[in-house]
Write a structure and sequence with these properties.
The complex is a heterodimer of chains A (335) and B (323). With 335 residues, chain A is α/β, with parallel strands linked by helices. Chain A folds into 2 domains: 223 residues, P-loop containing nucleotide triphosphate hydrolases (Rossmann fold, 3-Layer(aba) Sandwich), CATH 3.40.50; 74 residues, no CATH class. Chain A is built from 13 helices and 12 strands. In chain B, strands 6-7-8-3-9-10-12-11 form an 8-stranded mixed sheet, sandwiched between helices. In chain B, strands 2-1-4-5 form a 4-stranded antiparallel sheet, with helices on one face. In chain B, a hairpin with a 2-residue loop joins strand 4 and strand 5. The chains are: A alpha/beta (335), B alpha/beta (323). At the A-B interface, helix 7, helix 8, helix 9 and helix 11 of A face helix 7, helix 8, helix 9 and helix 10 of B.
């Protein structure tokens, strides 16, 4: 992790989002139920340098998609903030100049079937951000730009008259990428962009994303639960568990010498392709209910190295031997 | 003798614009106690193969020709009532989404007991004991209490354990597991796969494991069948297929998967996509995407032929061509 503060394009500081999932007011009053707060993201900090990729991994419900939505401004953070290119993004989103900022941050969603309007042609879909942000006004120029964008993701400009249902899943995801690129963004937030795709198509989409990053110097936040994909695309990896980052490290460091017990567990859980028939050691337990997270370190009920301190005191993320990790056992040198 | 034999199975969907052939001449066998993996991308026909075996093809889909034999007896085309007795008793099924394969209105115990008493000559009290034992065997803590809980009170991983218990309730010889771990997180997936593997080994049940995840196949199966566009492209021992793939499609599929041990700037990619059923190419269905295509591939359709330790449907392994 670079400590040179000026270089980071994206900097999230103590980002948190709490959802109120309480029962309706009348029920609360009559049945005496307390307010229920779901801490989807609870104090996440990271930086991404220009042209680099940070991947966030974790199991369902760990808050990785909430982080993505916070970064593009779909959610307002409950606490903390996010700086883009040195300015407070969430303050800027509210001002009239916020549109300029939104233009520079775009998002690719998981499901290419749900994220494209089935009643619009590909041209309408890709031209929408161009028109919305008033980047191009001349219709001929819009058409030309849509054609260019389609070409950049490996589709033909002739495809612009078609509708989304005429494309396969992989092609649709390319259309989503083309739409995201329409405004010349610098930062792309990709929320599980290949999870809905088959492996051969996933490879095509990942290759396009990497090529585009090289050509246009894009910065990615890449969210995935697939560690092999993450290892392929990212420069840095953050591992999330129940709304918090438990480990943040350089890709090679994380995969070669995982520090946090949860990271080790995740890496162990990946089926190994080439030693067939070898049984892995499954980890016991499941992700706890985020409405009622365990005390202390949220991972302690499943952790083989947990002790009394882990169940009472929440570990803070801190730099230990070059990586950032939130674990008492690592801090004390027990593992 | 093989437990299950599928011979030249053809499944068709008649439609207004002609008949679509979704499975075309699929043949394979499963030995007792064996775990056969069936892998392929969406639309390859792997789930249809499973559905044909358990007799749950969605109409208008039908077995147009070919045979499915369980312990030497034909089970395709059996009347509904007869098939119902086989399904559950001799063939158990596990589906992808554990929430939709359980009835939300009945407690899991009631569903288990119903399955057991339908297929086995036991009293309800014995069936309950058996159900508790099954839940214990599948690793559900406090099974005595949990048996009276409803599906929504279980987590995803626990629900899939209940579904496995349900599939094993009448001690079937064969389990057809269609993407049993796809809806689950990696750590839970590891638990379920390990459970499925050990529990079937203990009971000597054979498993047909349908998945798109090569990693799961590598770790679990004895043999694997790779499907492409409704046909078996390659079948053989899992170690051989993964380490020495004979069919270019298998090789491409393996190379697409990001590697955990080495860095590559770009992934290998197979250009194009699986053909639609109404536009299956002439000859070998893979030929427009194949890197090693030659003139014969576009003319004649290859059948499975010996290719080293595996069998592949690819003209590259035809001795007459090679000679």
């Amino acid at each position: 992790m670079s400590e040179v503060k000026t270089k980071a394009l994206v900097r999230a500081t103590d980002l948190a989002k709490t959802f109120d999932v309480s029962a309706p007011w009348l029920n609360r009053v009559l049945e005496g139920q307390p307010k229920m707060l779901l801490r989807a993201v609870d104090g996440v900090s990271f930086e991404i340098e220009k042209g680099k990729t940070l991947a966030l991994v974790g199991e369902s419900g760990c808050g990785k998609s909430t982080v993505a939505r916070l970064l593009v401004g779909l959610y307002e953070p409950t606490r903390g903030g996010f700086e883009f290119d040195g300015e407070d993004a969430h303050a800027a989103f509210k001002t009239p100049e916020g549109r300029k900022l939104r233009r520079r941050i775009q998002m690719i969603f998981q499901d290419p079937y749900a994220s494209l309007n089935p009643r619009w042609t590909v041209e309408d879909i890709i031209a929408e951000p161009l028109r919305e942000h008033e980047i191009l006004s001349d219709e001929a120029a819009v058409k030309e730009r849509v054609g260019e964008l389609l070409k950049s993701v490996g589709l033909s400009p002739l495809d612009m008259v078609k509708f989304p249902h005429q494309f396969s899943g992989g092609q649709r995801q390319r259309i989503s990428i083309a739409r995201a690129l329409a405004t010349h963004p610098e930062f792309l937030v990709c929320d599980e962009p290949t999870s809905a795709l088959d492996v051969s198509v996933q490879a095509q989409v990942l290759n396009i994303m990497k090529d585009l990053q090289r050509q246009q110097g894009l910065t990615y936040l890449f969210i995935s639960h697939n560690l092999a994909v993450v290892r392929h695309v990212s420069d840095q990896v953050g591992v999330m568990y129940l709304g918090r980052l438990v480990e943040l490290a350089d890709k090679h460091t994380l995969f070669d010498t995982p520090r946090h017990p949860y990271t080790r567990m995740l890496l162990d859980a990946i089926p190994k392709m080439h030693d067939t028939g070898k049984a892995r050691t499954p980890v016991s337990g499941e992700v706890p209910n985020p409405l009622n997270p365990p005390s202390g370190c949220a991972f302690h009920p499943r952790c083989p190295h947990a002790n009394a301190r882990c169940s009472s005191e929440r570990p803070q993320i801190q730099a230990i031997a070059g990586v950032k990790v939130a674990c008492h056992a690592v801090e004390e040198g027990r593992i | 003798m093989s437990l299950l034999q599928v011979k030249n199975l053809v499944v068709e969907f008649p439609g207004r614009r002609g008949t679509l052939r979704a499975l075309d001449d699929v043949s394979f066998e499963i030995a007792p106690g064996e775990i056969l993996g069936v892998v392929g991308e969406s639309g390859a026909g792997k789930s249809l193969t499973g559905a044909s075996i358990i007799g749950l093809l969605e109409p208008p889909g039908r077995v147009a020709s070919g045979q499915i034999l369980l312990e030497g007896e034909r089970i395709d085309g059996l009347p509904y009532e007869q098939m119902r007795k086989i399904r559950g008793r001799k063939i158990g099924a596990i589906f992808q989404d554990p929430l939709t394969s359980l009835n939300p209105l009945y407690s899991v115990g009631r569903q288990l007991i119903e399955t057991i008493t339908t297929h086995l000559p036991v009293t309800p009290a014995e069936a309950r004991q058996r159900a508790i034992q099954l839940l214990k065997d599948t690793g559900i803590p406090a099974a005595e209490q949990r048996i009276d809980h409803y599906p929504h009170q279980f987590s995803g991983g626990m629900r899939q354990r209940v579904v496995i218990a349900l599939a094993l309730a009448a001690e079937p010889k064969l389990i057809v597991a269609d993407e049993p771990t796809t809806a689950l997180d990696v750590s839970i997936q590891a638990q379920i796969i390990t459970l499925l593997k050990t529990i079937c080994k203990e009971r000597g049940a054979a498993v047909m494991l349908i998945t798109h995840d090569m990693g799961v196949i590598a770790e679990t199966c004895d043999r694997v069948a790779v499907m492409y566009a409704g046909r078996v492209a390659e079948i053989g021992p899992v170690h051989e297929v993964i380490n020495h793939p004979a069919h270019p499609y298998t090789a491409g599929l393996m190379a697409c998967i990001p590697d955990m041990t080495q860095d590559r700037e770009n992934l290998h990619q197979i250009d194009g996509a699986m053909p639609r059923l109404n536009a299956i190419p002439q000859g070998c269905a893979f030929n427009p995407r194949c890197e090693r295509v030659f003139d014969k591939c576009g003319q004649a359709r290859p059948d499975l032929m010996h290719a080293g330790a595996t069998q592949a449907a690819c003209w590259l392994h035809d001795n007459k061509v090679a000679a």
